[in-house]
Structures are given as structure tokens and as C-alpha cells.
Design a protein that fits this description.
The protein is of the alpha+beta class. The protein folds into four domains: about 210 residues, no CATH class; about 160 residues, no CATH class; about 190 residues, no CATH class; about 150 residues, no CATH class. Helices cover about 60% and strands about 20% of the residues. It is built from 22 helices and 20 strands. The strands form two sheets. Strands 2, 11, 12, 13, 14, 15, 16, 17, 18, 19 and 20 form an eleven-stranded mixed beta sheet that branches. Strands 3-4-8-5-7-6 form a six-stranded mixed beta barrel. Strand 6 and strand 7 form a beta hairpin. Helix 16 runs parallel beside helix 21. It is elongated, with a radius of gyration of 34 Å. The two termini are about 45 Å apart.
Length: about 775
């Protein structure tokens, strides 16, 4: 066969001469395929592990989180216990944990656990924060506990304990404090029917069965799959663009060789087949290598996220094998599509030195690639096995079209401006003539910047936004308590970082809004001279305004109990029933929302003293003994940590997209130089020099960078702002320091993509090529 001889004599030699370009293409494919095949392995193993742990994660067949005491509920539970239902209970208390100089705030879950009096089970996140392992010790509430184990997942606890971290003990004695949540773990019987029965008795509690936990797991897996598939789709698109552009550039570079070989009598079909064999010799091994690498990548990422390896051996190999065959088929088809461009090369046109018209081939290849690409996304969604993967792929394609359309519109506006500068006039006309390739460049650069923003700033953005949203609602940013209130107060007065503080005289009590129901609350007394950091008043009168016996409650308190200004609050304080008139509502910002504020009365006394502090740092606690501090940004830090852990997979995908984008844009710029080579000769022959061409390249680079930054930053801010407003009801806070790394990286990438090829490309001064144009 003629193509085999051509392949041995020509294509193998060219394969060796272009090994650098081919090496980059292969690396791009290896990484993209390894991540694409790692995603379904991660999701399958995570689902298997979580489904198998559903009962353990829930803690029992039915878990009930009770935020208050209900006599009717207690009686119902005791009745069920008498009917043979196993009932275990645990109380949840918020306390500081300490390991040497390291301090962290978390929850103690004290209940029916098979532990010694000095034994404690720590949640992994809290153990990592305290830098303690099994066999170590931690101090909680002035008592030393021995760490008898570390739980990799949150087993049978409430939502706050999972968020802050927790330690499980067999009992916890802390001056008779009432737990803010009591857990009831019920096993035996029909959990669904038990849930319905108990919910009718006390609908205000939170109920969770194993089936509920399984539904939560599936929802979380669908969300994770959708998020990962979005970046996979983008990385897949960028990798395909880099592969197609590399093939197209190879064809352009070899057009003279192709013309000569065809004039020697070799048919174009043989040339296409030989090139396809050459490319297949590269891409097929790259796909197989990527498939093999997906196994350790999936295992590493699962281990990083605390999911046990349950690959199942043969099942994982079958999944990887079928995925490898799928991607081999995909890349082979794209090779067949891309090599159709060889039909545009007419030997006599090339020999005469005329420019080859690629327009018709590009249009044909573009439509075939887009159509087949859509089919492959559907097939990949079927391979992953989740409809959310297909939905997210379709959404990202719509976004891609919108991004591309905006880039085209911007280019049209720029090129229509009446410039007087010869450089700008030439650059604008060049942009208009090559608007589609330039729009693709802007699109890929914008995606690169977007990947940098998502992968390396999303956790910081959400943390800063959450903290700013919380601090906007609160006039303080630290809560503190100590056994030496006088010492802390003196330190607050002497520390220049402290803008002010409010001293609270706290007593424990209960709200008895219904018969047999007791909600634990704190009654915090304030003195006028110590009320420096004021609460944000939403309605009514402040603490020292209006009736002296009136109290303030938080907006969350008001909404949960359905009461407001003018209502009487039925409470029990010190064992005595007391009715308190509500005269105002304050903003708690999600912190201490069950605090009742009132003027302090000397004869009442207090159980403890706490401080609300507005300070630029925590330097005020230096030298104060046994102090406990809590920053209001604790929840923001937790959210940032969760997102950072989840972004571990994102960063891999971001790296793929960034690498593919660089390769694609380098190919695109080099192809532009090849295509505009004769035009460059004309400009140099006119005496404008290579400097004019370099300045023209710099103008294109700056315009590309500005467009890409505007599009990517606008989209990033818009999406994050929408997500934060819908999920957390807060605005976005994006500091200049947060985006400094992505924007700086984008500037360097743009310089690399545009200026490096222009500087390194051989500037031949052979003006004889212009002879045919005279």
C-alpha cells in the first residue's frame, strides 16, 4: 500500500523532527484523559463508600436533633423504649479544645458511648486543627482527655458539630450547663413510621432516617458530579482545541512538502492516511497512558478526601478499559476530521507562492467537530452514569457560545473605531479580518483566567464575603470569656487594637412558649457604661430605652417563635417563671441568636461574664489567664476549608485547562504568523521594519488580555455573587490581593503566548517571494 511506504519514508522522519510539539500534545491528552476517567471512579467509589456508611453516618435508624426540651416528646420516646426500641441520647455543648498552645472551638457530644471517663473520640477535622493523633491528649473544660480514636467522617452528630468539629465522650460535667442540642438515636422498628409518629408530636425537631441520609448523599454526589463535569467539559474542549490546532498547524507547516509529494503522483488519500497513522501513533498511546494514570489519581484524591479505597479490582479495570476505548474512538474520529484540511492544498497554488485558502476547510471542520463534540458529551454523560453530568455539559456549552458571541461583538466595536494611528488602524483591520480566530483566542484566555480564579481564589472569596457579611451585621468581631474578667477588662483598655467592648452578665434560663416545652436561652444583662459595642437594632427600642423591664431578642429568635415587639416572653430563670415584655429586635448575625438582652440588675447576680470585642487583632488576650476567644469569622473559615478540600480535584482540572489553553493559543498565534507571512514581508519591504510587527503583536496581546480579564472577572463575580445571594443571602467581597495572582499569571501567559512566537519565529528577509505580487 502506497501510504505505508510514505509513512516509513516521510512521516516517521517528521515525527522525530517535531517531537517537542508532539510531546506537548501527548501530555495534554494524557492529563485530560486521566482526569476524565478519574471522575467516574471517584464518584462510583464515593457513592459505594457513603451508601455503605449511611446508617453509621446517620448514627441510627432514626436520628432526632432536639434544640429544646419537650415533655410530650420525652414521654413518647420512653413509651417506644418500653416497646423494645433502642434509644441512646447525647447532649451537645460548645466548648474550647486545647492542645498545648493550640486552641480550637468545637462541640462536645456527651452521651451513651462505650468510652472510659477520660477517653474522647475526635472528629478528623478537629484533630488535624489541634495537631493531635490517637494516643495523644486534649484539654476540654479544664479536664484532660485521652484521644482513643479519630473518626474520619461525622458519625451520628448534628450539623453544627459536623461544621465546627467535635469530640465524643461518655459524660461531660460543666457546672450544670444545658446542652444546646440533644440527640436521640433510635434503632428498631420501621424508622419511617417512627419519624412520622414523633414528628406529629413535636414538629419543631429535625428528623433524619437512613433513607434521608441516602437521599442527601445522592444529592451531594449529583452536585459534585455536575461541578466536576463542568470543568471536565471545559478541559475537554480546550484539549480538543489544542489537538485540532496542532494538527492544523502541522498541515500548514508541511504544505510545501505536501504539494511536492502530490506533484510526484502520490494521491492526497495516501497523504491523509499516512498522517492519520502518524497522529494515531501518538494519541492512542497517550490515551492508554492517561487511562492507566487515572487509577492512582482517583485513589490519591479519594484518600485525600478521606474516602476508603473500595475499587473492587476488576470493576475499576473494566470502567477504565471501557473509558480508554471510548476516548481512543473519540480522538481517532477527530484525527479523521482534522486531516480533511489537506484537501485545501493545491500543488500549483503552493508552488506559485500563492496563499492557500483554508476558509472552506475550516468551516467544514468546525461544523463536523462541533457536531461530533456534542455527541461525545452525551456519550460521556452516559459513561459517567448521571444525568447531572449531561445537564452541566449543556449549560457550559451555552455559556461557551455566549462567551464567544460577546468576544465577537467586542471585536466588531473595536475594529469600527476611526483610528488615526497607522499602527492602530492596521491592527483594527487585522482584527476584523481574523475576528473568528481572535475571538477564539479571547475565549480560551478568558477560560484560563477563569480557571485560575476558581481554582485558587474561590475559597478566599467565599471566606472574605461571608466574614464581611457577618461583620456588617455585627458591631463586634470577637467573643471572649475568662476566669479573670477584671484582668481581661484591663487588657482591653490598654490594648490599642481594641476599638471597644461590651460586657455581658450571663444567666442561663429557658423559654416556655408552650406547655411542656423548654428552650434553653441566655439572659445577658448590660450596664450603660459598659455598653460600648452596640447591637444593630432592627426594630423597637434599644436596651436602655423604653421600659426598664423590657428585653431585646434576635431576629432569628423572633422568626422561630413567631413573636415580636409588644409580646410577652414566658421564661424560667433560676427556677422561677418570669414574663418579659419584648421592646426590641436586634441582629445576631447567626451568633448567640438565643441571647435575651436586658439592663443588668445588681441583685440578680450572674453565672458568668462574657465580652463582645471590636478589635483589629487578638493581641488583647496576651497575658490574660484561661481566656476563651471566638472570632465571628469561624463559619467563614469552615466554609473556606470545605471549598478548599473540594477544589483539590478542581485544581487538577484547572491545570489541564491552563496547559491546554497555552498550547492551543501558541498554535493559533504560530498559524497566524504562517498565514500572514507574506503580509509581513510587504510591511518590512515598505521600510516599517520588524518593530512595527512586534508592536502590532503587542497591541493584539493587550486587547486580548483586556477582553479576557473583563469577561472572566465579570463572569466569576456574577456567578459567585448569584450563588452567595441565593445560598447565604450575603454579597460578594473581592479584594485586589485575592485576584492579584490570577491577573498577574494572565499577564505573563499573554506575553508568553503572543510575544514569544513573534520573537523566536525566523524573520527571513527574502523579498524575492514578493516578485509574484508586483
Amino acid at each position: 500500500m502506497e501510504w505505508i511506504k510514505l509513512f516509513r519514508l516521510y512521516n516517521l522522519r517528521m515525527l522525530r523532527s517535531q517531537r517537542l510539539l508532539y510531546g506537548f500534545v501527548m501530555l495534554s491528552v494524557v492529563i485530560a484523559v486521566s482526569i476524565a476517567l478519574a471522575i467516574p471512579q471517584i464518584m462510583a467509589r464515593t457513592e459505594l463508600a457513603l451508601n455503605g456508611q449511611a446508617a453509621e453516618l446517620n448514627g441510627a435508624g432514626l436520628k432526632v436533633e432536639a434544640e429544646y426540651e419537650s415533655r410530650a416528646f420525652r414521654e413518647a420516646v420512653e413509651k417506644l423504649r418500653g416497646e423494645g426500641i433502642t434509644v441512646k441520647t447525647a447532649g451537645v455543648y460548645s466548648v474550647p479544645f486545647q492542645n498545648g498552645a493550640i486552641q480550637a472551638y468545637g462541640d462536645i457530644v456527651a452521651g451513651d458511648y462505650d468510652l472510659s471517663e477520660d477517653g474522647i473520640l475526635l472528629y478528623k477535622a478537629l484533630a488535624d486543627e489541634l495537631h493531635v493523633k490517637e494516643g495523644g491528649s486534649v484539654t476540654v473544660g479544664g479536664r484532660v482527655y485521652r484521644v482513643v480514636g479519630v473518626e474520619q467522617a461525622a458519625y451520628g452528630v448534628d450539623g453544627q458539630s459536623e461544621m465546627l468539629g467535635y469530640g465524643k465522650t461518655a459524660g461531660f460535667h460543666n457546672m450544670g450547663r444545658t446542652p444546646f442540642v440533644t440527640l436521640f438515636l433510635l434503632d428498631g422498628g420501621d424508622s419511617g413510621k417512627l419519624k412520622e409518629q414523633l414528628a406529629q408530636i413535636e414538629p419543631g425537631f429535625k428528623y433524619s432516617t437512613v433513607d434521608d441520609r441516602l437521599a442527601e448523599i445522592q444529592a451531594k454526589l449529583n452536585t459534585n458530579t455536575a461541578a466536576l463535569t463542568i470543568l471536565h467539559t471545559l478541559s475537554y474542549i480546550m484539549t480538543l482545541l489544542s489537538v485540532l490546532s496542532s494538527i492544523f498547524m502541522i498541515i500548514m507547516q508541511r504544505q510545501r512538502d505536501t504539494a511536492v509529494i502530490r506533484m510526484l503522483g502520490t494521491p492526497v488519500k495516501a497523504l491523509r492516511t499516512a498522517l492519520r497513522a502518524e497522529l494515531g501513533l501518538l494519541l492512542v498511546p497517550a490515551v492508554l497512558l492517561g487511562a492507566l494514570l487515572s487509577i492512582p489519581i482517583a485513589r490519591h484524591l479519594l484518600k485525600f478526601n478521606g474516602v476508603p479505597d473500595s475499587s473492587g479490582g476488576f470493576g475499576a479495570l473494566r470502567m477504565v478499559g471501557s473509558g480508554a476505548l471510548l476516548f481512543i474512538f473519540i480522538y481517532v474520529v477527530f484525527i479523521f476530521i482534522a486531516t480533511m484540511a489537506m484537501d485545501a492544498i493545491h500543488p500549483l497554488t503552493v508552488v506559485r507562492g500563492d496563499a492557500v485558502s483554508w476558509k472552506k476547510s475550516r468551516r467544514k471542520i468546525t461544523w463536523l467537530s462541533v457536531g461530533f463534540g456534542l455527541v461525545t458529551l452525551i456519550v460521556y454523560a452516559v459513561y459517567v452514569g448521571r444525568s447531572s453530568a449531561l445537564l452541566s455539559s449543556m449549560l457550559i456549552l451555552l455559556f461557551t457560545g455566549l462567551f464567544f458571541g460577546i468576544a465577537l461583538l467586542g471585536i466588531r466595536v473595536i475594529s469600527a473605531w476611526p483610528y488615526r494611528s497607522r499602527l492602530m488602524l492596521y491592527s483594527s483591520r487585522s482584527l476584523r479580518a481574523n475576528r473568528h480566530s481572535f475571538a477564539v483566542t479571547v475565549f480560551s484566555l478568558g477560560l484560563t483566567i477563569l480557571f485560575l480564579l476558581i481554582g485558587f481564589t474561590l475559597d478566599q472569596t467565599i471566606r472574605d464575603s461571608f466574614n464581611q457579611g457577618t461583620e456588617a451585621k455585627l458591631s463586634y468581631n470577637y467573643l471572649a470569656a475568662t476566669g479573670d474578667p477584671a484582668g481581661l477588662e484591663q487588657a482591653l483598655k490598654e490594648t490599642p487594637d481594641v476599638a471597644g467592648y461590651t460586657k455581658l452578665y450571663v444567666r442561663s434560663g429557658f423559654v416556655t412558649d408552650r406547655e411542656g416545652v423548654r428552650r434553653p436561652v441566655q439572659v445577658s444583662g448590660l450596664k450603660p457604661e459598659e455598653y460600648q459595642v452596640r447591637y444593630k437594632l432592627l426594630e423597637g427600642e434599644d436596651v436602655f430605652e423604653g421600659p426598664a423591664d423590657g428585653v431585646l431578642i434576635s431576629s432569628s429568635f423572633r422568626d422561630k417563635l413567631g413573636i415580636g415587639v409588644g409580646s410577652l416572653l414566658r421564661t424560667e430563670i433560676g427556677g422561677e417563671p418570669v414574663e418579659l415584655p419584648i421592646k426590641g429586635v436586634y441582629e445576631a448575625g447567626g451568633i448567640n441568636q438565643w441571647d435575651i438582652l436586658k439592663p443588668a440588675v445588681a441583685q440578680e447576680g450572674s453565672e458568668r461574664v462574657s465580652f463582645l470585642i471590636k478589635a483589629d487583632s487578638s493581641r488583647f488576650k496576651e497575658g490574660v489567664s484561661s481566656i476563651i476567644t471566638l472570632h465571628v469569622g469561624l463559619q467563614g473559615e469552615y466554609l473556606a476549608k470545605m471549598i478548599s478540600d473540594f477544589l483539590a480535584v478542581f485544581k487538577w482540572l484547572c491545570a489541564v485547562c491552563i496547559f491546554s489553553s497555552i498550547l492551543f493559543n501558541l498554535n493559533l498565534v504560530c498559524m497566524g504568523i504562517l498565514q500572514d507571512y507574506r503580509e509581513g514581508l510587504v510591511i518590512r519591504a515598505m521600510g516599517l521594519g520588524s518593530g512595527f510587527l512586534l508592536r502590532h503583536t503587542a497591541v493584539k496581546a493587550v486587547i486580548s488580555l483586556l477582553f479576557s480579564l473583563l469577561l472572566s472577572l465579570g463572569l466569576y463575580v456574577g456567578l459567585v455573587k448569584l450563588g452567595l445571594s441565593l445560598l447565604m443571602h450575603i454579597g460578594i467581597s473581592l479584594s485586589a490581593g485575592t485576584v492579584l495572582l490570577p491577573v498577574g499569571s494572565a499577564v505573563l501567559l499573554t506575553a508568553l503566548i503572543f510575544l514569544l512566537p513573534a520573537r523566536l519565529w525566523p524573520q527571513q528577509q527574502d523579498f524575492r517571494e514578493l516578485g509574484g505580487m508586483v
